[in-house]
Write a structure and sequence with these properties.
Blueprint (H helix, E strand, L loop, with lengths): L2 H29 L7 E2 H4 L3 H5 L1 H4 L6 E2 L1 H10 L2 H5 L2
Antiparallel strand pairs: 1-2
Helix pairs in contact: 1-5
Length: 85
């Protein structure tokens, strides 16, 4: 891979990651309805797929998801869940 192709690839990868992070942040903020900085199981009820797999993402078993725990869910969340369909 020549240097200009490598640069273009790195730019595209960075843009894709940045776009995904912005989306994840928006989704987290929407789900965190009380704006506590975490998502409770009650708040997660709006995302059935998350409720069904709660234990997988609540890594510290505190009954809430912080942004890092929610980001893991975002990586595997079905497309229709993301769009709210």
């Amino acid at each position: 891979m020549n240097p200009s192709m490598k640069q273009a690839f790195l730019f595209a990868a960075f843009f894709t990651l940045a776009s995904g992070a912005a989306f994840a942040d928006d989704t987290f903020k929407q789900a965190d309805t009380d704006q506590s900085g975490t998502i409770s199981k009650q708040e997660a009820a709006a995302l059935p797929e998350l409720t069904e797999t709660w234990e997988t993402y609540d890594l510290n078993s505190d009954g809430e998801l912080d942004e890092a725990e929610f980001a893991r869910f975002e990586l595997v969340m079905p497309k229709d869940e993301k769009s709210g369909e």
